[in-house]
Amino acid sequence: MTSEVPAAAVAPATHPLDYATVTGLLAMYRRREVSPVEVVQHQFERVARHESSLHCFVTQTPEVALGRARAAEAIWMRDNAQAIAPLLCGIPYGLKDVISTAGILTTGQSKILQYNVPSKDAAVEARMKDSGGALMGKLTTYEFAHGGPSWDLPWPPAMNPWKPGYLPGSTSSGAGAAIAAGLLPAAIGTDTGGSIRMPAAVCGIVGVKPTYGLVSRQGVLPNTFTFDTCGPMARTVEDAALMLGAIAGYDDADVASADHPLRDCMADLNLGVRGVRIGWVRHWYDGDANCHPDVAPAVEQAMKVLADAGAVVEEIRLSDLLVYQDCKTTISITEMFSAYEHEFRTRPQDFGLMFRNKVLSGSLIRAEDYFQALRQRLWLARELSRAFREYDVIATAGWMTPADKAHPDKLEKFLRPPNITTPFNIGGGPAMNIPCGFSAEGLPLSLQIAADHFDEPMMFRVGHAYQQLTGWHLRRPTEGMHQ
C-alpha cells in the first residue's frame, strides 16, 4: 500500500540541493555531479535566508565546513575515490550545542558556559570528523538539554519551519528545525527522555536513540548519566542508519560505553517486513485525554500499511506510561542536580528561570527514593525485554501531539503528561521516530519503532520498509518559511 502525498503539501520547486539526503549527496559526489564545496556553500546560503526566523544555530562554522569540504572534494576527484572516501565524505552536518568541539564555542545554551571553548572534541564529533563530515555549526538546544524553550537565555529558542509561532520540540530542537527546513541534511542530537525523537516527531524527520552505550558520550555535557544517549537525526531511515555506522563504537573514556560492535545496519535494510512480528502498544496513547485526535488514526493507518506488507501486527499491553515517567523523572532530576550542584551553589542567578526552577527540585529527592526508582527501572526494563522475546519490534505513537505553540511568557510545568518516548530510555534499547502523517493543521505526526538491545538493524529495516511504502517523509515546509 502506498500513501498518497497531496501535491499542495509538497514545497514548490526548489534547488535540487535544498532537501538532498545524505545518501543522495554521496551518490552525486560519486558521479561528480556536484562538489562538497558547492553543497556547503549552498547550505549556508539557505541558512542566511532562514536563520533569522528559525534560530537553529548558536554558532555557525563556515570556515570549518568549507575546509573539510575542500578536503572531501580532493578525495572525490581522485580515480580511486570510492575505495578511499570515508563514510560521510563531504556531508554537511550540525551538532547539538552540548557536544564539545575543540576551538569552537560549546555553550549548552547557558550563560554558565557562554564563553566556553573546549580544547578537545567529544568522541562523537571526532568520529564525524574522521568519517569526512563537514561541520556547519552548533545547534540550538534547551539549557543543558533540559528545562524548556526559554527566552531569558543568551540565545533564543529555535522555531518550527512548518508553521510560524510553533516550537520544534524538545532539546535537540535546533537540529530538528534545521533538517526540516533544509538548512542541513544531518545532525547529531542527544536523547535522555525523548530529546532526539520528540523534535523528529514534530518536525517531520527521522530521529534515532541508539542502544544505551553504543555511542560514546565522552565530551558531551551531562544531563542524566543513567539515560544520556547520542544519536543521528536525518530525513530518511537510510541516512540515519548510515550515520549510526559512523558514530557507534566502544570508547574506554566513557564508563557506560558498551563493548559490543554495531551490526551492519545497511545489510538488511531492503528485506521488507514480511513475517516481522510487531507488538503494537496502542493503549499508551489511544484514548488518552492528552492525545491529539489525529494521532491515533495516523498510527493505526501506519500499522495497516505494515500489516498489508506482510508484518504480523498484534496489540500488546505494558505498564502505564505514568509508571515509566515517574521512574525516569525521579532518577533524572536527581542526577541532573548532582551534575550542576557546584554551579547551583556558586552562581544560581546565571541559570535560566525555567532550568533553575525544574532542576533545583532534584536537591529534595531522598536517597531512598532514588534507589527505589533505580530498582523499579530494572523491573520495567525486564518487562520490555520480555516483550522483545515475542516481538521483533514494538510500535507506538512517536509523540502524542503535533508541535506546540510558542508561549514566551509561560513557564514550563515541572509535572507534564508522561512522554511516550520515555519507556525506551528506561529500557535502554534503540528507538526511532519517523513521519507517519499530518494533523488537520498541517503539522507532522510520528510513528515510534523500538527494538531489543543492539538490534538496530531490525528497527531500521522496519522503518525503511515503511518509508518505501509511504511518502510522508517527502513532504516539506512551504518555501516561504517565516520570511
Notes on the protein architecture:
With 483 residues, the chain is α/β, with parallel strands linked by helices. The protein has one domain (16-474): Amidase signature (AS) enzymes. Helices cover 35% and strands 12% of the residues. The protein is built from 15 helices and eleven strands. The protein has an eleven-stranded mixed sheet, with helices on both faces. β10 and β11 form a beta hairpin. The radius of gyration is 21 Å and the shape is globular. Mean pLDDT is 94; it is low at 1-13.
Briefly characterize the structure.
The chain has 483 residues and is of the alpha/beta class. Helix content is 35%, strand content 12%.
Order of helices and strands: HHEHHEHEHEHEEHEHEHHHHEHEEH
Main β-sheet description = 11 strands, mixed
Mean pLDDT: 94
Query: What Rg is obtained from the alpha carbons, in whole angstroms?
Result: 21 Å
CATH superfamily: Amidase signature (AS) domain
Shape: globular
Question: Which spans have pLDDT < 50 for at least 5 consecutive residues?
Answer: 1-13
CATH 2nd-level architecture? Alpha-Beta Complex
Strand order of the largest sheet: 1-3-2-4-6-5-10-11-9-7-8
Features:
11-stranded mixed β-sheet, Amidase signature (AS) enzymes, 483 residues, 15 helices, 11 strands, alpha/beta, 35% helix
Give me the secondary-structure topology:
Blueprint: H1 22-30, H2 36-54, E1 57-60, H3 62-76, H4 81-84, E2 92-96, H5 123-130, E3 134-139, H6 173-180, E4 186-191, H7 197-203, E5 206-209, E6 229-234, H8 237-247, E7 277-280, H9 295-308, E8 312-315, H10 321-339, H11 341-346, H12 353-359, H13 367-390, E9 393-397, H14 422-427, E10 431-438, E11 444-451, H15 456-469
Parallel strand pairs: 2-3, 2-4, 7-8, 7-9
Antiparallel strand pairs: 1-3, 4-6, 5-6, 5-10, 9-11, 10-11
Helix pairs in contact: 2-3, 6-7, 8-15, 10-13
